[in-house]
Design brief:
CATH architecture: Sandwich
Order of helices and strands: EEEEEEEEE
Strand content: over 45%
Mean pLDDT: 81
Largest sheet: 4 strands, antiparallel
Shape: globular
Helix content: under 10%
Number of domains: 1
CATH class: Mainly Beta
Low-confidence stretches: 1-27
CATH superfamily: Immunoglobulins
CATH topology: Immunoglobulin-like
Strand order of the largest sheet: 6-5-8-9
Structural class: mainly beta
Radius of gyration: 21 Å
Number of helices: 0
Distance between the termini: 48 Å
């Protein structure tokens, strides 16, 4: 993201110049990835992650999930290669059967240091 500064030079001339000041070498984090919960089983799910910024790229995805109503999040990171449509699938295992959960994710390109905004929370219930 670039910041714009307005500078005025010379009181008699009254000229205004627009100066573009570049941000740091790395751009601001992108929009949140879109997530969908798929293939719900007793102890696992498949999380479908879509982000058009990651087409055919490797990205790091940080997934946070918790039992509904609990305070703390379990956080797990994955390095994934996205397909040409910007999609990847992530298996989340070790869940309890017949339990309601909330899940969210954020991502970043492999070479960048800042994560995107977090996706909205999705709710799901594991199978009996």
């Amino acid at each position: 993201m670039k910041r714009m500064l307005k500078l005025t030079t010379g009181l008699t001339l009254g000229l205004a110049f627009l100066l573009v000041v570049g941000s740091s070498a790395e751009a601001a984090p992108g929009d949140a990835p879109k997530i969908k919960v798929r293939d719900v089983k007793k102890n696992s799910i498949v999380l479908s992650v879509k982000d058009k910024e990651y087409k055919k790229d490797k990205a790091k995805i940080k997934v946070s999930y918790r039992e509904k109503g609990k305070k703390g999040w379990t956080k797990v990171s994955f390095k994934k290669k996205f397909d040409k449509k910007g999609k990847a699938k992530i298996a989340i295992t070790g869940l309890d059967k017949n339990t309601k959960y909330e899940i969210k994710a954020k991502g970043k390109e492999a070479k960048k240091s800042k994560y995107s905004k977090s996706s909205g929370k999705k709710k799901f219930k594991t199978a009996k």
